[in-house]
C-alpha cells in the first residue's frame, strides 16, 4: 500500500478482472509461450525432442507449400474483406432507412452469424455438389453445371461466397450502430442545399462512420487471415492443395503430419504477420476518419 | 491473486477425473478408431464384460482418429487399449515408443507371420536397447486387400471376362464405354480415393527396395526418385481415371458406394474395406473382385494388403494385466472370425478359415498364398500431402507435374528431418 489511500472501488475492479486475467494467462498465454518454445525444437508432438535452433524458421522460407498457403490466404482475405464490407454497408444503409418491418429484416440478416460456420459449410457443400448444378442445368447454363468446389481454379470462389454470406451479418450490426450516431440535422441541411443522396453518402455518411469502417476492415481482415472452419467443411484444402490456408497447413502438418515443432515456427511467423497487418491497417485508416 | 490460484488448482483437480474406484472394478479406456465397426466392438465388449465382471471397458470412437490420437499424445494421455489402422502414422507412433511390447504374449504365436511382418516393417520401439524389429507393438486383428471391385452382372451383360493383363483391362474399359456403361465410378471429391490405384500400380511397378534407397539418399534425389521410377505407373493411373464418369471430380466416397451398389458402373477402384459400405446401400449388390492387372504378364499380379485393424496396449498403462486379458480375448479365434465375416476382411490368424464372402473370392487365393505387398503410401511421411497431389493429378491428367511435386515435397521433408533423432 502506498501513502495514497485507495478507495474501495479500484480494489473491487481488481477482483473483477483478476479471474479473467488468470484464466486468460493459463489457457492462452502459457500455450502460446510453449508453442514458441517448441518452434525451436524438432518435437513431433510426442516422444522426445532436441533443440534445432532456428533451422525450422530457415526451412519455412524454403517451403513452397507454406508460401503458396500465404498467397492463397492473403488473396482470399483481401477479396472477402472488400466484398463483406461492400455488402454489409449496402444492407446496413437499407436497414437504417425508413422501411417497413425494419426489425424483422434486421433479425433475418443476423441469423447467419448465429449459425455455426461448420454447419453452414456442410450445407453449402451439399448445395454446391447437388442443388446448384441441377438448377443451372435446368436453366440451360451448362457452363455452370459442374461443382465449383471441385475445380482447382475456382474452388476459392465457393469459399468466398460462403464466407461473405456468413460474415456480413456481424459487420451489418456494426455499420447500423455507426449510422445511428449521425444526427438527422446534417442530412436536412444537405437536403436544403440540394445534395443528391449519392453526394450525401459520399460527403456525410461515409466520413462520419469512418471509425466503424476502420474497425470493420481490421476485424474482418484479421478473421479472414485465420480462415479454417469453412475450408474444412467445403474443400478440406482441395482440390489438390489449391485452397490450403495457413491455419490449415499448421493443423495438418503439426497435428496430423508429426511436424509439431516445424509448424509451431510457422504459427509464430503467422502471429507476427497478423499483428503487423492489423497495426498497419489501423494506422492507415484512422488518419482518414472524420468527426463532427 | 491467491484466490485465483486456488480456483485454478481446484479446476485442475476436478478435470483430472479418474478417481480410484471402490468396488474393485477396473475401467479400461479403449480407443477404437473405426467408426463403421463401433457396433461390432460394442458386442465384443459386452461379451467380454459378461465373462470378466471385474473389468469395465469404455469404447471411445472419434471421427478423425489419426489426429485425435496425436492430440491425446501431446497431452500424454495414452489410452489403455487401442485399435488403429496400421499405416505410416502407426509406424511413427510405434517408433516413438507409445505402445507396450507384446512379444511375450501367448497369442503372438497364433498370428500369420507374413501379416505380422507387414506390421513390423512399419517400425518398432527400440527404447530398451533392443534393435529395430525386436518388439511387437501391435497385433493384427483384421487384414484388408486392395484390388478392383466389379459388378459381375454388368460384366456378363456386356460379354466381358475378368481382365488378367493391362491391355485386357483397357480393352474392357473401352468395351463398356462403347456400350454406354461407365467403366469406373470415381469419387475425386474425396482426395484419398485416388490412393488405392496409386498403391496398386506404384507398388507393383516400383523397383525392389525403392523406399530404402530413397531414404538413404536424403534430400538430393539423384539415383532414385519418383520422377524416374514412377513415371509408368502414374501414367497408367491417369489412363485409368480417364474412363471415369463425367462428374467424377464432384462425387464423394459415400456417393460412390451408393452408385456402385446401384449398378452405376462396371468397376470400382476400391479395396475390400468398401464392401460393407456398398452393402449398407444395397444388401444384394452384386460384387466381385480381382487384383490389378498392372503388366502384360498375368503372373505379375499381386494383392496389396494392409493391416486394417491392429491392436495395441498403451506402454505406461496402470492396468497392464487387465489390458492383456482384454487383448487376449480380442485375438481369440472366434472373435477374429466373427469380425472378418461382419466386415469383409481377412483373418490374420494362422489356420484361419478362408473368408467365404463371394465378393472377396477373386482376392482370397492371393492372400492365402502370401502373394501380398504392403501399402506403399505407408512409407511416405504424413507431412507430405500425398492424396491431395494425387487428386490434382487425376483431375488435371498431368502425371509429370505430380511426380515433380512429390519429389520436391519428399526432399523438403528429408531436409527438415535431417536434424531429427534417429533410433533414440
From TrEMBL, chain A:
The chain crosses the membrane at residues 12-33, 70-95, 107-128, 154-177, 204-225, 267-285. It is found in: Cell membrane. It holds the Pfam family BPD_transp_1. Residues 70-281 form the ABC transmembrane type-1 domain. The keyword Lipid biosynthesis does not apply. The keyword Signal does not apply. GO terms for biological process: transmembrane transport. This is Raffinose/stachyose/melibiose transport system permease protein. It comes from Conyzicola lurida.
From TrEMBL, chain B:
Keywords: Transport. It holds the Pfam family SBP_bac_1. It comes from the Bacteria. Belongs to the bacterial solute-binding protein 1 family. This is Raffinose/stachyose/melibiose transport system substrate-binding protein. It comes from Conyzicola lurida.
Amino acid at each position: 500500500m502506498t501513502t495514497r489511500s485507495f478507495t474501495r472501488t479500484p480494489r473491487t475492479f481488481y477482483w473483477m478482472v483478476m479471474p479473467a486475467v488468470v484464466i486468460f494467462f493459463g489457457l492462452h498465454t502459457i500455450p502460446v509461450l510453449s508453442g514458441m518454445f517448441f518452434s525451436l525444437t524438432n518435437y513431433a508432438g510426442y516422444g522426445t525432442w532436441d533443440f534445432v535452433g532456428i533451422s525450422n524458421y530457415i526451412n519455412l522460407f524454403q517451403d513452397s507449400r507454406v508460401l503458396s498457403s500465404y498467397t492463397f490466404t492473403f488473396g482470399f482475405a483481401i477479396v472477402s474483406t472488400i466484398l463483406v464490407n461492400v455488402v454489409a454497408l449496402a444492407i446496413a444503409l437499407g436497414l437504417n432507412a425508413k422501411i417497413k418491418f425494419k426489425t424483422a429484416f434486421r433479425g433475418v440478416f443476423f441469423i447467419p452469424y448465429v449459425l455455426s460456420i461448420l454447419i453452414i459449410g456442410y450445407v453449402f457443400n451439399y448445395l454446391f455438389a447437388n442443388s446448384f448444378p441441377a438448377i443451372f442445368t435446368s436453366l440451360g447454363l451448362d457452363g455452370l453445371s459442374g461443382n465449383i468446389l471441385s475445380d482447382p481454379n475456382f474452388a476459392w470462389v465457393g469459399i468466398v461466397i460462403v464466407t461473405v454470406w456468413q460474415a456480413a451479418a456481424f459487420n451489418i450490426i456494426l455499420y447500423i450502430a455507426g449510422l445511428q450516431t449521425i444526427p438527422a440535422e446534417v442530412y436536412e441541411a444537405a437536403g436544403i442545399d440540394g445534395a443528391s443522396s449519392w453526394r450525401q453518402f459520399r460527403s456525410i455518411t461515409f466520413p462520419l462512420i469512418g471509425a466503424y469502417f476502420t474497425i470493420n476492415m481490421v476485424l474482418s481482415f484479421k478473421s479472414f487471415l485465420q480462415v479454417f472452419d469453412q475450408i474444412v467443411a467445403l474443400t478440406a484444402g482441395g482440390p489438390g492443395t489449391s485452397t490450403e490456408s495457413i491455419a490449415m497447413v499448421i493443423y495438418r502438418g503439426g497435428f496430423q503430419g508429426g511436424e509439431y515443432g516445424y509448424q509451431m515456427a510457422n504459427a509464430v511467423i503467422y502471429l507476427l504477420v497478423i499483428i503487423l497487418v492489423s497495426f498497419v491497417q489501423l494506422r492507415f485508416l484512422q488518419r482518414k476518419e472524420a468527426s463532427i | 491473486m491467491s484466490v485465483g490460484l486456488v480456483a485454478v488448482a481446484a479446476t485442475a483437480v476436478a478435470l483430472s477425473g479418474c478417481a480410484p474406484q471402490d468396488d474393485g472394478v477396473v475401467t479400461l479406456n479403449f480407443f477404437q478408431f473405426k467408426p463403421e465397426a463401433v457396433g461390432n466392438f460394442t458386442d465384443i465388449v459386452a461379451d467380454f464384460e459378461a465373462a470378466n465382471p471385474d473389468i469395465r471397458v469404455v469404447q471411445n470412437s472419434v471421427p478423425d482418429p489419426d489426429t485425435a490420437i496425436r492430440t491425446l499424445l501431446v497431452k500424454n494421455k495414452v489410452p489403455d487399449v487401442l485399435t488403429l489402422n496400421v499405416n505410416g502414422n502407426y509406424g511413427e507412433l510405434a517408433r516413438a515408443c507409445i505402445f507396450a511390447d507384446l512379444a511375450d504374449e501367448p497369442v503372438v504365436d497364433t498370428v500369420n507371420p507374413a501379416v505380422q511382418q507387414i506390421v513390423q516393417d512399419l517400425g518398432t520401439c527400440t527404447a530398451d536397447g533392443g534393435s529395430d524389429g525386436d518388439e511387437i507393438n501391435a497385433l493384427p486383428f483384421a487384414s484388408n486387400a486392395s484390388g478392383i471391385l466389379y459388378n459381375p452382372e454388368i460384366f456378363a451383360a456386356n460379354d466381358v471376362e475378368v481382365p488378367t493383363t493391362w491391355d485386357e483391362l483397357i480393352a474392357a474399359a473401352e468395351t463398356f464405354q462403347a456400350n454406354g456403361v461407365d467403366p469406373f465410378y470415381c469419387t475425386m471429391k474425396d482426395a484419398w480415393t485416388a490412393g488405392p490405384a496409386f498403391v496398386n500400380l506404384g507398388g507393383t511397378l516400383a523397383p525392389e527396395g525403392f523406399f530404402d534407397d530413397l531414404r538413404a539418399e536424403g534430400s538430393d534425389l539423384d539415383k532414385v526418385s519418383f520422377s524416374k521410377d514412377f513415371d509408368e505407373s502414374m501414367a497408367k493411373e491417369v489412363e485409368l481415371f480417364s474412363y471415369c464418369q463425367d462428374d467424377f471430380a464432384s462425387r464423394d466416397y459415400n456417393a460412390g458406394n451408393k452408385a456402385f451398389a446401384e449398378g452405376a458402373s462396371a468397376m470400382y477402384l476400391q479395396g475390400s474395406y468398401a464392401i460393407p459400405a456398398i452393402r449398407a446401400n444395397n444388401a444384394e449388390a452384386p460384387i466381385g473382385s480381382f487384383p490389378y492387372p498392372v503388366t502384360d504378364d498375368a503372373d505379375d499380379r499381386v494383392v496389396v494388403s494392409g493391416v486394417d485393424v491392429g491392436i495395441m496396449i498403451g506402454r505406461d498403462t496402470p492396468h497392464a494385466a487387465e489390458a492383456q486379458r482384454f487383448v487376449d480375448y480380442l485375438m481369440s479365434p472366434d472373435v477374429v472370425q466373427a469380425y472378418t465375416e461382419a466386415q469383409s476382411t481377412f483373418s490374420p490368424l494362422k489356420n484361419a478359415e478362408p473368408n467365404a464372402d463371394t465378393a472377396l473370392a477373386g482376392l482370397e487365393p492371393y492372400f492365402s498364398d502370401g502373394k501380398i505387398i504392403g501399402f506403399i503410401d505407408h512409407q511416405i511421411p504424413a507431412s507430405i500431402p500425398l492424396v491431395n497431389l494425387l487428386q490434382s493429378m487425376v483431375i488435371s491428367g498431368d502425371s509429370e507435374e505430380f511426380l515433380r511435386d512429390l519429389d520436391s515435397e519428399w526432399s523438403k521433408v528429408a531436409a527438415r528431418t535431417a536434424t531429427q533423432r534417429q533410433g533414440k
